[in-house]
Amino acid sequence: MIRPFDRSRFAILVVEDEPLLLLDALDMVEDAGFTAYGASNADEAIRLLERHDDIRVLFTDVDMPGSMDGLRLAHAVRDRWPPMGIIVASGHIRVKAEELPENGMFFPKPYLPSIVAKTLHTIAERLAA
Question: Cα–Cα distance between 33 and 119 in angstroms, integer?
Fold first, then answer.
């Protein structure tokens, strides 16, 4: 018998330096049935990844203050946690496919929450298989 996939045991790390956008994204992730963690910069994100082994997807903004932007964070996460799903978003620049880490996805802002939720479900199902 195949056991149903439990989205609540599959966490998404949202990295966004704008507090209201971070709260909105966290709500979107939770409304989609996933556990959500939030970080306001790359350093905080790395600390959360080191502490929480249930994080399976990084959903990061590109423009952030700190030691690295979201695109560099995405590449660092791909190198250190290879099976991680990665979604990069920006309202200021268009990230080309060749700039993304392997299997990374880009969403221009403003993105539709329903499309992001559907993408998270697709990534979760693929990683759970």
Answer: 13
| 109 alpha carbon, distance to own chain's centre | 14
Omega of the bond leading into 110 within 30 degrees of 0 (cis): yes
The model's pTM: 0.93
Q: In a 3-state reduction of DSSP, which class is residue 90? A: strand
- Mean pLDDT for 64-79 is 95
Residues 87, 59: contact at Cβ < 8 Å? yes
For residue 58, pLDDT over 90 is answered with yes
Residue 14 parent element (H or E) = strand 11-15
- Convert the pLDDT of each residue in 95-116 to its tens digit: 999 999 999 999 999 999 999 9
What is the number of alpha carbons within 13 Å of residue 7 lying toward its C-beta? 16
Quick one: how many helices (H) and strands (E) in the chain? Answer: 4, 5
**What domains does the chain contain, in order, with CATH numbers?**
7-128 (3.40.50.2300)
Q: How far apart are CA 63 and CA 69, in angstroms?
A: 6
Give the chain's mean pLDDT: 92
